[in-house]
Structure formats: structure tokens, C-alpha cells
Amino acid sequence: xxxxxxxxxxxxxxxxxxxxxxxxxxxxxxxxxxxxxxxxxxxxxxxxxxxxxxxxxxxxxxxxxxxxxxxxxxxxxxxxxxxxxxxxxxxxxxxxxxxxxxxxxxxxxxxxxxxxxxxxxxxxxxxxxxxxxxxxxxxxxxxxxxxxxxxxxxxxxxxxxxxxxxxxxxxxxxxxxxxxxxxxxxxxxxxxxxxxxxxxxxxxxxxxxxxxxxxxxxxxxxxxxxxxxxxxxxxxxxxxxxxxxxxxxxxxxxxxxxxxxxxxxxxxxxxxxxxxxxxxxxxxxxxxxxxxxxxxxxxxxxxxxxxxxxxxxxxxxxxxxxxxxxxxxxxxxxxxxxxxxxxxxxxxxxxxxxxxxxxxxxxxxxxxxxxxxxxxxxxxxxxxxxxxxxxxxxxxxxxxxxxxxxxxxxxxxxxxxxxxxxxxxxxxxxxxxxxxxxxxxxxxxxxxxxxxxxxxxxxxxxxxxxxxxxxxxxxxxxxxxxxxxxxxxxxxxxxxxxxxxxxxxxxxxxxxxxxxxxxxxxxxxxxxxxxxxxxxxxxxxxxxxxxxxxxxxxxxxxxxxx
Length: 562
Hints:
By secondary structure, this protein is α/β, with parallel strands linked by helices. The protein has three domains: 40-135, no CATH class; 142-229, Nonspecific Lipid-transfer Protein, Chain A, CATH 3.30.1050; 254-528, 3-Layer(aba) Sandwich (Rossmann fold), CATH 3.40.50.
């Protein structure tokens, strides 16, 4: 008779004696277990204190049986009494971790004591325990889905080395990954949530969260520390966002792209600072400083960097909800704001009327704007990521700016040229939005007549701003969901948490900058590009002219001009 009722007997093959040693882990294999039919089990892990192997799903199920079925202790440890093993009380369960493993495994003796209390006071055989484990699953497909999810998350936890987290499948079982107390919990409400986690694909997981198939409880910023380890290969999304503006032209596609994010019924104001309603990072003196103080300091620095005086003219590209526009107009500067959000335009016009400011706001695309006179200064806060054609931007700025004038820009930057997440492209800023690639940006500045006056690293400020937006968005959940719906709240929560985690990566692959450019008063205004770049620009200009001529046969309702 097999000595330990908790451990399965060695597998038998017809005409072959039982193996004296456990079969090594060979990944997925066909085996006969608990039923009369053959099934394909998940990858197995050989526990160091056992002669045979449990599958991951069996190990996790036995963990849950121990967790919910025994009187637990306060310190989460198992100790030997004089007569029998007992559990010290702990709501999280008696958990001992296997050396070298990131998923929780129970000590066999603790398991035996617990199962005695769970299954009617009698020690159950391994065959009966197997039936009890399978009874907790609705279908065999759910068993396989959970098996794959546990294997995928176990691999992710071992590779990434991030915070400990917990998985709670639809049946309520809890599985921990990592060491220590879980920082966050992945709660799958439906099998589709498990499938999304098993895929380890960032966009698929985001869709599951937005649809409510998956919840992330606890520290969301810790959860997004795993983002770099997730896959994000969606070539169709990437190619279409690059090809569409080439085929149709930026003036035709920009209005719809911008409106997707900024015409969200001004929901972003629930998270923004309450004075200027800026939607870009402030400048903070400490990690716990309020968003309002940082925004006021940032606007003051930008105003000073542009050397603005009463009576001068400022062009605010992408004026948002009027932060820099109102700040400058209140100091006697005549401001012209450009936006492609009709809701933002209405909001800013109302504030201009209420405060009687010397300012105007236009529904206008950047690339089709044709001012009648030049400006003394130009401000572009969080805008150039949407433009991304740096040489064209520099050419237009040099035409619109008076000699001796300055341009202020702040933006997020990335080490790779095209590294925008598919979630951002599909649901936040579609089209050609991308974080600035500094070598390409600096090359465009070098070819232009502008002089680089100042560069400040803004990565820490960007993280603090996004974290503050995330915290305010969480606090206002009830109000936001009542006004705008649960899906919008989840979408923007993913955005704020993603940005905060991205700007806090230890790899520093993402960062942010504040840049001040000046057009010298004695400059000849010439662009000094290489012959190859000049030839490419000439060919692009010819192709644009041909495209625009063809597209003129199909007029569009909205070209971003009013």
C-alpha cells in the first residue's frame, strides 16, 4: 500500500513496472489522471520534498484548501505541538515557499493536518482529493485555462523580479507569486480574464480590464512595474497609424484623432489641478507637493523663459483647457490658442469671457495654420508628441516667430524611435503620436536656424504629476463613473498608472524634457540639411502635392480650421 495518502502512487504503464524515481519535467504530456479518459495536463513542477510531481493546478488547489479550510495563525507559520501539527492563525493561510520557486507551495505535513479538518475529519486518499479538486471546476476547459495562466504568471514573476502579487480566478482560489505580502491582486471575473493574463500581452490585458473581465486591486503602480516584460506585438495597428496620414493627409485625420482623447466630456478635469487645469507636468520641490503648486511654478518658469512682456503676442499651440493662455493673458500678453478639441475650445472661450482676457482660441490644425503676422513667443506644452515631424515643425516655428523670439517646449521622450504602446495608439492618442526620439529631434534643431538655449530633465516631475493624477482619479471614481461610465474611468486609470510607472522605471528608458529655443535676431533663417535629407524632403513635398490634388476631389467636412 502506498504510505502517504496525500502523494499519488507512481504512474503505471501497461506491462511496465512502476518507476522508482519521479519522471522529470517534460512540459506538456498526456497522462491518465482521476478519470477514465486521457487528458493533456499542464506543465508540472517537482516539489523538492516529494517523490512524485504535482501539476501547478493541483499545487494551487491544495494551497487554497489549506488557506480556507483550517484554523490559521497570526504569524503564518506551521509548528509542531507535542501531539500533532497545528496551524498558527493567519487570514492569508499557512504558506511555506519552496526554495527557488516564486509560487506558493504547502508543506506536506501542514497539508495533511488541514485536509483532515476539511474533509469530514477523515484522512482522505490521494484519489479522493483529486476528485475534490476537480469538483471545484465548472469545466475541463477552465482547468486548462487556469493551468496556463498560473504557468505564465509564474514565468513572469521569476523573470521580472517585481513586487509579489496574487491571482484570484473566478472560483475564488488565491495563488501568490513572489515572496512576502502581495502588493496587488489580479482578480479574474470571467474565463476571458484568465485568457488575457495567460497571453502576457499588454493590449489584451488592457482590453480585459476595460471590459471588466479583470480587476487589479491594490497598488496599481506596482502592477505596472511588470509592463516592460509584457508583449506588445500588433503590426496591423502600427502600420495603419503610419500609413493612414500618408494616404489621407494629416489635416483630414488629425481632428478625429485628437477628439478621441480630448473630447471626452472634459473628464480629465476630475484629475487635473484645480486652478489652471494644466494637462502637463508641473515643477515640484518635493514628492508630496500638491499639483496646484507645481503647475503654478511651471507656468511661471515658462513665462520667464519666453521673456514675455505686456502687449506682446504669444501663440499657444495645443492650449488644452487654457492654463498657459490664461496665465499669460492675466499678465497683459495677447494670446492666440490653437486646439483641435471643440469641447476644449468652448471651455476656454467661456473662461476668457468670464475673466475678460485679451485672448482668443481657434479650432485649428497646426500644419494648416497660416497667421497674418509673427509672434513674439510660442509655447508648445505636451504637443510635439502628436506632431512627430520635427523638421516640418521647426520650419513652421521659424516662419511664425519674430527674430529674437523664443519657443518653449516640454514633452516625454523615449530611447527608441517608435516605441508607442498599442494601447496608447488604439485608445488614447491614435495616429502618429509617439514619445520624442531625442537624436532625431536634436538633428532637426541642428539643421534649423534655432539656437538651443536650455534643456531641463523633467522625468521626476512627470512621474509625480502622473501619480498625482492617478490618485485623484481613484478618489473621484464614484463621481466619474456616474457622469462618464465605468469604461472611461478604467481607460484613463490605465493611462495615468502607465505613465507614472513608465517614468519611474529603473531602466530609465523613458524620460521627459523642458526645452527653450531662440531664433537669433541676426539669423539668415536658412535650414542647413544634408543633400540626402534635402532630396527626401523634396520628394515628400512632391508626393504631398499629388496626394492633396487627388484628395481635393473628395472634400472633407472637417479640415481642422475655424
